[in-house]
Amino acid sequence: MRPFDYRRADDARSAVAALDERPDAMYLGGGTNLVDLMRLGVASPELLVDVTRISSSAIEESRDGGLLIGAGVRNSDLTSDPLVRLRHPMLVQAVLAGASGQIRNMATVGGNLLQRTRCSYFQDVSKPCNKRLPGSGCPAREGDHRNLAIMGYSGSCVATHPSDMAVALAALGAIVHVEGRRGPRTVPMPGLHRLPGDEPDRDTVLEPGDLITAVEVPALSFATRSHYRKVRDRASFAFAVVSVAVALDVADGVVRDCRIALGGVAHVPWRAELAEEALRGSPATATEFTRAAEEELAQARPLRDNGFKVPLARNVLVRTLIDLAEAS
Amino acid sequence: MTTTAAAYVGSTMDRVEGLEKVTGQARYAFEHSPRDLAYAVPVPAAVARGEVRSIDVDAVVQLPGVIAAIWHGNAPRLSTPENAELAVLQSSRVAYRGQYIAIVVAETLQEAREAAQRLRVEYDAEPHDVELRVDHPEMYRPDHVNPNYPTDTELGDPDAAFAAAPVVVDAMYSTPAEHNNPMEPQATVAVWDGDGLTLYDSNQGASAVRDTLAPLFGLPPENIRVISPHVGGGFGSKAAPKPSVVAAALAAKQVGRPVKLAVTRQQMFAVTGYRTPTIQRVRLGADTDGRLTAIMHEAFEQSSRIHEFAEQTTTPTRMMYAAPNRRTTHRLVRLDVPTPSYMRAPGEAPGMFALESAMDELAVACKIDPVELRIRNDPAADPESGLPFSSRNLVACLREGARRFGWADRDPAPGVRRRGRWLIGTGVASSTYPTYRVASQATARCEPDGTFTVRIAASDIGTGARTALTQIAADELRTSPDRVRVGIGDSAMPSAMVAGGSMGTASWGTAVVRACQELMEELDRRAGEVPATGLETSADTSEEIGAQRRFARHAFGAQFAEVAVDADTGETRVLRLLGGFAAGRIINPKTARSQFIGGMTMGLSMALMEESLMDDEFGDYLNHDFAQYHIAACADVRDVDAFWVEEDDPHLNPMGSKGIGEIGIVGTAAAVANAVYHATGVRIRDLPIRLDKLVR
Questions:
Q1: Ramachandran category for residue A323: left, alpha or beta (phi over 0 → left; psi -120 to 50 → alpha)
Q2: Are B569 and A139 an interchain contact pair (Cβ–Cβ within 8 Å)?
Q3: CB contact under 8 A, B630 and A238
Q4: Where does the Aldehyde oxidase/xanthine dehydrogenase a/b hammerhead domain lie (chain B) (predicted)?
Q5: Does B639 touch chain A (CB under 8 A)?
Q6: At residue A262, does pLDDT exceed 50?
Q7: Do B559 and B534 sit in the same domain of this protein?
Q8: Measured between CB atoms, does B615 come within 8 Å of chain A?
Q9: At B85, which CATH number?
Q10: Contact B623/A318, CB-based, under 8 Å?
């Protein structure tokens, strides 16, 4: 690991100013991903600005019934919060499905959103990677991509976003609060992360120096009936092969509303808008669920070795919808 | 002097070093820090084949803290080793990606790592070939397979018998490359004192490290001392010295200071050996009642360009089941890959996956219960050598295992049992591992105060060997274990074979027993009088082991697995694993149980998860960390249990024991795969059984 400077920020404004001055600087939250990347030589900031003391670790209820989750909230604290547990079970399930207890004790909500891909080529500095070193190439396309994207990828990058939490937040339509050079602003969740296009090195729409200060989860009454299901290669400690976050509102056997996002399939937590649209107003039956899932997945263009993710995503989505419909 | 009639062999005893380990007092190789220490970080080759054209060492020696950058242009010369993997920095050739091509030494580990990362190397790269395939034009027949078995065997006319058989199985199976990942990666602290070299090293045999390194550095063996009292696992990866120990010694020599070198987890995937991938064809011919008439087993494997390691994949098929017509073969291809090496039950583990999967397929084809099929084909004597078995209790393991597992009510129909969203199935497989011992030496000593010290350069890699030897010695010395100190893990002690091949306890134990018997006889002659300076005896078992009668000596076992497969996703979870073993006399039930269930856990991991992915473009194993190379974790291991059938086998060694380190893994992968077939109706012949092979 390269030697680096370390500074603890006093407030958000000075943190942003620090990064503005030093383009070689990065924010440090829980460090559960960044420090690994520094050890691997993937990230080599010369200054770390520790934001853990200035980031809010509070979870507050807003007047309209939504939740404002401070960026500094530890993942494990998020999962034990009574309000979150009651209103957004799938968010709790998603966070609990990720990492280990020890890592969840360190990881923060803000940092979790900014996790970088676990594509093997990205993590190995002895190999090319357009995300790590723009213009160097993408060996994953012809190499190992079993666990990489089936949707929304480009010729220059087929990586997937690794976060579980972000999938649930994308389904919930969360709004990210950001402090930037020009002051505070908000970024709606499906829209924070970006598809690779020809700039795969940019994971999100955030600008240099932008600091995530909070995540707002709007009120969504039927999210009390929601579920996050993660499919992985072993029973624990593994990134999703495919995951789904689903909230379902069924009345009299008809889908009134739903929220669906997929993980492990794209460069972003994939909000399944086509499936959502297909389901609204449809009978809550296995046939309709399958039709909706297939409509969403018709966009899939799997790579040589990850075609199995298409039926896998379909099956998991359909099963999760059936389970939620039966429970309601 | 206290004498006691208690038999400590066969009784449960806690590890003698348990307290040291759990309190952190036990020192491992990396925890030795002599004065004036420097840190070495090796630089891996970034091409899979070619020549190092230039290395810009001048640039990195300017970096803060850097003491030296060593490469083939300035490295100390070594004698040519038998295994070219150990000719560290002796030539500009690159045999595989990840091979050490330079070593950076610095004042701190961070400085050394940073400098190693910045070292600029230019190569003349050549096209590489890293893909194992059956029809590879360079596939050849090695002279022998590990350690010294015939490459091929044949008996009767297997082709004709197979062609005439009313029931046949003819299937291809494959197992991937797999990497040993002990908790403690290889690590060495090397200290030169003139022509004397001391190595604090993590290995499976201090004597072997000394004997391999001495000629390499042109030293008499007595000038090298290898100290390794505690070793955090090995599973075979530390059975023979790897490039890292040579690199540490070489770096220390170059800089004239003690040097510490630890292999990183990532680097383990290139330089510490691995289980070769295999492709296997098994053909079984049988009567309609399941009696085998023909067995044919062909294995295709890889080795590196620089060293031949030919794994003995089909050897268990030579003695497992009766059949008058049989053939086993091994073929090897040398690729631009790291050299494969020992990994828990080399040969037996992948070989028995294929054979025991094929036996399950035969049971299905014959409509015979798979337990019954195996019993029906149990041979009276070793089918190929004709030698009598010293003891063979496979049938007892199968029957008792079936009883404990609840096999009797099994519905043979595949893919029909559902519990919620899970498909449920059960499977069985046999296991076996050869029982050998190798000559070793030991000393036994008694003091006037009635305490004893036994010394042998044995190695405890976490198996409980130190404890087992203490029990063995206590019985022979007719005293209690708390009066016996067993010294191991130091090449200054009497030479011992490595902890490997499930031979450690049998080999060391024999030497310990003989040394202790000598001592007791000497004490008897002196009527129990111990001189003030103490009394010491020694033993060397070369003659005894050379003179032992020929028997087919093997341990046996049977594995039973219950699995659940998610009908929507293909996720497979092992609900229950039960292993029954016949492995002679069990010296310590507590540590033995750990060995059995540990091996079975590794077998579960082999069945469902482990796979080192070769990247064809770059020619290296890509998934080189624990986030990507999946090993069974706590949540994957639910209910694993083992029992044993005690054997009284007089043809083994003074303890009557068989090795138990490796038999636990053998057969487990097949038992799981057979259970997956029973659950789903889908036969997976290529490990690991990941969900992508089952999702529909």
A1: alpha
A2: no
A3: yes
A4: 23-127
A5: no
A6: yes
A7: no
A8: yes
A9: 3.30.365.10
A10: no
Q: Are residues B297 and B265 in the same domain?
A: no
Q: Is the dihedral of CA B651, B657, B663, B664 positive or negative?
A: positive
Q: Do A234 and B114 touch (CB under 8 A)?
A: no
A-B C-beta contacts closer than 8 Å:
82
Q: Which residues of B are catalytic?
A: 662
Confirm or reject contact between B608 and chain A (CB < 8 A): yes
Helix/strand/coil for B75: coil
Q: What is the pLDDT of residue B2?
A: 45
The answer on B97 and B152 residing in a single domain is no
- Indicate yes or no: CB of A234 within 8 angstroms of CB of B46: no
Q: Which among B114, B609, B622 has the least Cβ separation from residue A1?
A: B114
Type of residue at B281:
R
A1 touches chain B (CB under 8 A): yes
H runs (alpha helix) in chain A:
12-21, 34-40, 75-80, 82-87, 89-97, 101-106, 109-113, 165-171, 273-279, 286-297, 309-327
Question: Is B485 near chain A, with CB under 8 Å?
Answer: no
| Alpha helix segments (H runs only) across B168-276 | 206-216, 243-255, 265-271
User: pTM score, two decimals?
Assistant: 0.97
Contact status of B692 with chain A (Cβ, < 8 Å): yes
What is the rounded CA–CA span in Å between residue A286 and residue B418?
19
Segments forming the whole domain that contains residue B251 = 35-127+183-233+238-271
Q: Are residues B250 and B371 in the same domain?
A: no
Neighbouring-strand partners of residue B641: B578
B523 and B587 together in one domain: no
B10 part of a folded domain: no
- Residue found by looking up tokens 């029809």 in the block: B135
B636: which chain A residues are within 8 Å (Cβ-Cβ)? 234-236
pLDDT tier for residue B5 given thresholds of 50, 70 and 90: low
Last residue of a domain, one of B546, B566, B582: B546
Q: Are the beta carbons of B608 and A234 separated by less than 8 Å?
A: yes
Give 3-state DSSP helix, strand, coil % of chain B, rounded to 5: 25, 25, 45
Q: Is A2 in Cβ contact with B114 (below 8 Å)?
A: yes
Which pLDDT tens digit goes with each residue over B474-511? 999 999 999 999 999 999 999 999 999 999 999 999 99
The verdict on B220 and B348 lying in the same domain is no
- The arithmetic mean of pLDDT across residues B670-685, rounded, is 98
Does residue B137 form part of some domain?
Answer: no
Rounded Cα gap, residues B306 and B309, in angstroms: 10
- Cis bond upstream, residue B688 (ω within 30): yes
Please list every residue in chain B whose beta carbon sits closer than 8 Å to the beta carbon of residue A142. 617
What's the full length of chain B, in residues?
Answer: 696
B212, part of any domain: yes
Q: Would you tell me how many other CB atoms lie within 10 Å of the CB of residue B33?
A: 12
pLDDT interval class at A142 (50, 70, 90): very high
Q: Are residues B159 and B117 in the same domain?
A: no
| The total number of structural domains that make up chain B | 3
Q: Which residue of A has its CA nearest to B632?
A: A234
**Cα-flanking dihedrals φ and ψ of residue B593, to 5°?**
-60, -40
